[in-house]
Predict the structure.
Amino acid sequence: MRIGELSRASGVSARSLRYYEQQGLIHSRRTSGGWRDFDPCMVEHLLAAGLCSVTIGELLPCLAAPPEERTGVMEAILAKEVARLEAKRRDTDRELDVLQTLRRDVTDSLGTTAQAEDSTNVPGQYT
């Protein structure tokens, strides 16, 4: 997969991909024409998950190792990232609850005001 294709598929800029390669976080092979050729299976999921460069750097060597040589580091890193994202989701859910309550209160307040105005302007009714 060429760098532009990987960039479009993952949503990561070609410049960032080149930086990740320069830092040794990802690797490419060169085609006979000199183009970078990335393995999409190893990179797309990590980049699409929104992981930071440090975490990607920790995970890529684990993914490159044959399963029998893996030490459990990858599982521990992934578990940490899952916990981080779950905490972030809880924070986001809390913020949404507050905003929805505020929105409901404002909507209810506007509805009450509109009903009060309607009842005072009923034709034939004296205030």
In short: The mean pLDDT is 78. The chain has two domains: 1-70, 72-118. Strands lie at 28-30, 36-38. The two ends are 76 Å apart (CA to CA).
